Amino acid sequence: MSTGAGAGADNGQDLVIRGARVIDGSGGASYRADVGVTAGRITAIRREGDPALTGTGRTLDAAGLALSPGFIDMHAHSDLALLRDPDHSAKAAQGVTLEVLGQDGLSYAPVDDTTLAQVRQAITGWNGDGSDIDFDWRTVGGYLDRLDRQGIAVNAAYLVPQGTVRMHAMGWEDRAATPEELDRMRQLVAEGLEEGAVGMSSGLTYVPGMYAGDSELTELCRVVARYDGYYCPHHRSYGAGALEAYEEMVALTREAGCSLHLAHATMNFGVNKGKAPDLLTLLDRALAEGADISLDTYPYTPGCTTLVAMLPSWASEGGPEAIVARLRDEATAEKIRHHMEVIGADGCHGVPIEWDAIEISGVSDPRFTGYVGRTVARTARANGEAPWTTARRLLLEDRLGSTILQHVGHEENVREIMRHRVHTGGSDGILQGHKPHPRAYGTFPEYLGHYVRDLGILSLEECVAHLTSRPAARLRLPDRGLVREGYRADLVLFDPETVAAGSTFDTPRTLPVGIPHVLINGEFVMRDGKRTDALVGRSVRRTA
Fold first, then answer.
1. From CA 391, how far away is CA 376, in angstroms rounded?
2. Where is the Amidohydrolase domain (predicted)?
3. Distance between CA 324 and CA 446 in Å, rounded?
């Protein structure tokens, strides 16, 4: 029988997708159907055996293909890439139709001129220095307007970045906020939410966001809760003390009455091998007590960040220029080395750094391209010097712009967490650098191909729900994330038998296979495996 399209739904579809295996995002069993699209929305669904759909527009034969809602990347670092690269095949080719930006507490709005210059330098390793971007905005609303005005490859939502807010209100100082400064931060967060942000992020191993205490974060989360947004923390440790760090975020948001979404939620480093069940027990207990919690992960074991992020927080107080000054001073640099290699810096999650696990993935200065793809330890051996000498030189001469892969994850933890009922997918994809993490180009096909088809960790229907309806629910999007009549036609057609990530650690910019068609707002952004010239993505804003 029909799924209930209104009168006239069959009277001339703009596009009819025929004979697809519909995996509708609910987690329920798939079914064969024709799907009609008109004016950017799904207007008719006719299951096998129903009267056929008629259309006056285009027809697409989907035999052998699965049709699902577009994938939602819950943790993306495309804040400048969407403006810089209209093609943006890194995400469009994966079937991503919506990215959530403003992650890890650091992004480009809200800012003043001073803060903008500082944050550009601080996250050069994530997004480049922005010298090719016209920063014609200062507010969250201004940034979202810029995305809409320019036109972008995929849709984008935004989180107010708490570290940037703190930088804006009180600089880079490691101290508690004054009442006036806290009021200013509350105001900036509220303004960002009113202008369309869906929540607030933090990077609590990144400066200056990590200088905020729990009481300060709780007050900001109270603001987020008033707007029915969510808090997305990169919490204080994924290594030593990881479980305690998760507990801190759960307790903090419960106190504030705020929804919680845990960013790239995993248990890394040797101290956490096999400890994913401990995390999930903590979350299950909180969920049973009424907490509103979700999380995202990427289906890989190594992490990716900047080399400067490994420093102890005290070495980063005052901002980028202060960091450089400390690194130039011999006595202070030796203190930094001792903290990193012997004590365990908070920037490295409280674990003494293992230089043979730190692989350089990108540099800003082309003089250092020879470092890319090698660990700091390997480069140091080749140069006949200590690893810290190599790392210090790179930090100074690359002006804090180097990115790294950190090989500290555990496959059993990755698999265990991705099975959880509140799990969603997030690439954490940094697109900068000569050798980026393959998750930037491969997260979603890696889930569908390797973990579903090859390993059977999730069923295909379950996995699609993790990547579509579940994140749409977290974002409070009433008309995305499901194949339903009336919903926006953000759709992916893929071949379950062949879909796979093309990207690897050796060839990280290779596009996936088995995803021939992607539609956003009813328009093809990928057609027959090739990027079209459509720029139909728009900002997706929080609604009252």
1. 7
2. 59-525
3. 39
**CA nearest neighbour of 165 among 141, 139, 147, 143:** 139
What are the CA-CA distances from residue 350 to residues 14, 240, 312, 353 (Å)? 56, 5, 9, 9
Residue 491 has pLDDT above 90, yes or no: yes
> Is residue 163 helix, strand or coil?
helix
Q: What is the pTM of this model?
A: 0.95
Q: Is 223 left (phi over 0), alpha (psi -120 to 50) or beta?
A: alpha
Q: CA nearest 79: which of 118, 35, 8, 135?
A: 135
* pLDDT digits 0-9 by tens, 13-29: 899 999 999 999 999 99
pLDDT tier for residue 10 given thresholds of 50, 70 and 90: low
Tokens of 19: 């004979």
Question: In this predicted model, what pLDDT tens digit does every residue of 269-298 receive, in sequence order?
Answer: 999 999 999 999 999 999 999 999 999 999
Q: Which residues, 6 or more positions from 149, have their beta carbon under 8 angstroms from its beta carbon? A: none
Measured from the Cβ of residue 85, the count of other Cβ atoms closer than 10 Å reads 15
Every domain range in the chain assigned CATH 3.20.20.140:
71-301+409-479
Q: Residue 87: left (phi > 0), alpha (psi -120 to 50), or beta?
A: alpha
Whole-number mean pLDDT of the chain? 95
**DSSP per-residue codes, 81-138:** HHHH-SS-HHHHTTTEEEEEESGGG--SSS--HHHHHHHHHHTHHHH---TTS-----
Q: List, for residues 171-196, the tens digit of each pLDDT value.
A: 999 999 999 999 999 999 999 999 99
DSSP 8-state symbol, 447:
I
Q: Which DSSP string do the residues of 409-445 spell out, in sequence order?
A: --HHHHHHHHTSTTEEE---B---SSS--THHHHHHH
Alpha-helical regions (H) of 267-319:
276-288
| Phi, psi dihedrals of residue 232, rounded to the nearest 5° | -125, 90
* Distance in angstroms (rounded) separating the CA atoms of residues 16 and 20: 10
